[in-house]
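User: Second chain of the day. Same drill as before.
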Amino acid sequence: MADAHARITGKTGVFMVTRGPGAANAMVALHTAWQDSVPLVLFVGLIPRAETYRESFQEFDLNGWFGTTTKGVFQIEHAERIPEIVSRAFALARTGRPGPVVIGLPEDMLRDRVQAQAVEPIRTLQSVPGQDAIAQLEHLLAIALKPLVILGGGGWTPQATRQIQHWAERYELPVAVDFNCMDLIDHRSPSYIGSLGYGRSQIMADALQNADVVIGIGSPLGDIVTDSWALLPVQGHAAKLLTVVPDSDCLGAMHPQALRIIADMPGFASALATLTPSSPVRWGDRTRGLREAGERYRQPPNLGGDIDLNIIFEHLQRSLPDDAIGTWGAGNHAGWA
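Assistant: Same format as last time:
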């Protein structure tokens, strides 16, 4: 629920668990938030401070469990530091690449009585790319014949998705989406051509392999979108690459020759809001062809039988309102979207 709250509202999700099995069950949610760049703060109850290193009931190493799949792990030993550490954790969850943060709460610390002042939330400014970065982007488009834009990652806002879509439409750019990122562009847009990753069509694989300029906005062009880099090798490919990521240490960005712009998605999108082509683009027909091929691929074949999921989902597509939210038992099922 905390993960869903964060994705829907754009705010930081919060949840609390007990030590032992509660913390163990939270691992799936934390790993999902880490992979999908979702800001979460988890509070975990811990054993009393005086009982550490004695194998007390459900004692475990908080950092050992969560240190490799979160942005930070904190344990509050002194109650007067609660405002400071909680404020820091919420800021860390939201800045740069969003993600989960864990705060440990020793049982006896929660009963301490202290005088503590509330603190203001740590506020950060939007990360906007400089003019040099935008000039590099425009240079790549000026030399491109077969560009491809791939949207992915987290930290998006509704306004940012609209600004990126309008920019792509002004430039007649073909736009694909990364795995689990179906909602980053309106599928009725003339720029939208389909999704990469699990369940992708051969049309999409060819579009990526044949592109001479690939622009990943939020997507580091990692393993799923590139079929474990088979479609876009780390070394030895001919395409010019540009990735826009919120952190310089984005682990999925494996292409050393890629131009990397460090910016959050709202900041980057705002920088593109007023850009327009300086001359007629040369890839408009290709974009329209990819769009038409993608639309044909999305037409469900009649599988026959008593229950045809293709027909069911086609009916849902026609019947549900535009703002309907679908939930899935596993990420792979999102291919039905």
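The chain has a mean pLDDT of 89.

User: Great, on to the next one.
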